[in-house]
Amino acid sequence: MIYGIGNDICDVRRIQASVQRHGERFAARVLGPQELTVWRQRSQRWPQRGIRYLATRFSAKEAFSKAIGLGMRTPMTWRDCEILNHPSGQPYLRLHGALKAWFESRRLRAHVSVSDESDYATSFVVVEQQTVLTAS
């Protein structure tokens, strides 16, 4: 059963301005530990690629917060929600701490899609609630 749907579009230029203004502190506030490692690696090779990565993660976390109906309120936090990639490139969510406990207690499962093109990053998240089957 669908629990919630969220989408978001993010202006990559806004993310770039935040990084220019606040430096790595902005990325460290938005990204979880594994995401931060990937961001640093991508930023070293090609800074614009790092900005796009940060923008897609920002957008996906906004979409996820909408899909679960909390917005950016506890237990939803930027760093407790990571958008990682399988070896195939498919994005997935990894949750931590109180957000993970909240999510699992409701038997939720999330599907995420991210994309970026020139000046915009966009994300779409579908959250399902798994039903408990009872024996008849």
Automatic annotation (TrEMBL):
Molecular function via GO: holo-[acyl-carrier-protein] synthase activity; magnesium ion binding
Catalytic class of the enzyme: transferase
Annotated compartments: Cytoplasm
Cofactor or coenzyme needed: Mg(2+)
Residue span(s) of domain 4'-phosphopantetheinyl transferase: 4-108
Cellular component annotations (GO), alphabetically ordered: cytoplasm
Catalytic reaction annotation: apo-[ACP] + CoA = holo-[ACP] + adenosine 3',5'-bisphosphate + H(+)
Keyword Transport applies: no
SUPFAM superfamilies reported for this sequence: 4'-phosphopantetheinyl transferase
Main location as per UniProt: cytoplasm
Source organism superkingdom: Bacteria
Keywords recorded for this protein, A-Z: Cytoplasm, Fatty acid biosynthesis, Fatty acid metabolism, Lipid biosynthesis, Lipid metabolism, Magnesium, Metal-binding, Transferase
EC numbers, comma separated: 2.7.8.7
BP terms from Gene Ontology: fatty acid biosynthetic process
InterPro entries: 4-PPantetheinyl_Trfase_dom, 4-PPantetheinyl_Trfase_dom_sf, ACPS, Ppantetheine-prot_Trfase_dom
Residues that hold Mg(2+) according to the record: D8, E62
UniProt family annotation: Belongs to the P-Pant transferase superfamily. AcpS family.
Function field: Transfers the 4'-phosphopantetheine moiety from coenzyme A to a Ser of acyl-carrier-protein.
Protein name, entry field: Holo-[acyl-carrier-protein] synthase
